[in-house]
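Weekly structure sync - notes
Attendees: PM, LS, DV (DV joined late)
Agenda: review two folding runs queued last week.

Item 1: First target. Sequence and structure tokens pasted below for the record.
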Amino acid sequence: MKSYQDAIPNFRLIRKKCSRGKGRQTAIEAAKGKIIVMVDADGLYSQIGGILFEYENSNSRNLVVYSGKLNQSILYLIIGYKSIFEQIGGYPDLNYLEDIYLLKVAESQKIVTKRELTNSMAQPLLVNNLPSGQERRYASNPIEMIARRIIDSRDILFVEDFSYSHFVDFHRLMGIKRITHGIPLFILGKLLRFTLNVVPISKKIQEINEKKGHLTDRNS
């Protein structure tokens, strides 16, 4: 990445130890262009130029979301004007499902267009020979793996508020692990939700609607 920054005048590399959501939001705030393209770090995207050209010439005022399950991995590409990301408050300070949080808020405002992400547009990258959704691929030791699982469980239950059965299915826990791993993660995740300094989705939507109502009143 450093070589790109040295070779391309308008390329900027920002290094910051933070959650994924905070990292995405930092990038949006630092961006100088009018259109934002968000991609997953574990994907190779071959048609970003074409997607950007199509969006710029479409006069769309929505976020366009490309998604697809490719070789056991789920990849996203989200494109939209910077002003749209700002309108809905941007990304939350979450390490997991930060994109789902943002899209739930955007969908409440009816500003999301969904499209399929195909194999010709992107290819997933395996990390330590594991596909996306398996956080242990980023862990260097068992303790770090457990810590990541707990944080992910907190974020999953904050965004989705799954029942226990949906939660263990989402974590892909099978057999006895649905009990030995699932129950502790579910309980810890539920408790740790209250340590997050993130506005719940329902409250975020309410705040946006109230702000829109105030603007309407002032303009009427």
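Item 2: Second target, run right after the first with the same settings.
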Amino acid sequence: MTRTLLLLVLCIGCKGALGQSIPELHGQSFGGNQVNLPGDLKGKIGIFILGFDKKSSEQTKGWGDSVFRDYGKDPGVLYYQMPVLADVPILIRGMVIQGIKRQQAETERSHFVPILDTVAGWKQAAEFSAVDDAYIVLVDSAGQVVWRTHGVATTEAVARLNMSVTELRRHSLSATSINLQRNATNQSLARPQFGGY
């Protein structure tokens, strides 16, 4: 019930079905780090900035700058800019990746992961509709979509993302607290009781 309530709270202003899982991704960041989603999310919130076309790069950069500024040093947030390159012909894909990589500062490269397959799953998770837009997908530690938007990183849109991250954290903390209380209660019930002690 609390998960449903969280999804309803975060969904204000969103359309479509939330709560679906992101597709699996096994790849490497531009910084050389191995990336395995959703497995790498354990205990973290995920923010994914997707661009499905070169024309979306200005919007994805705006979102990337904002997310890096707000969450770049936050150990509880895993974020990636994810250019979707599956449709780029294999013969030139390496050159395209190198071109994108050269445009990134060394400190940002570990936050860039190209999507080379499962495009349909990412389009569904992002609710893809406009090829030139940037898509932002916020997920919980299980990889479930809890909020998404697309377009320019306006002040209002960034504020909605930040509010959604705060709400997701609040929900995660209360769920953890409830689970700890349940575990403590279960452990005390499981202890043998000795007369007089």
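Discussion on item 2: Residues 1-15 have pLDDT under 50 and may be disordered.
Action: LS to circulate a short write-up before next sync.
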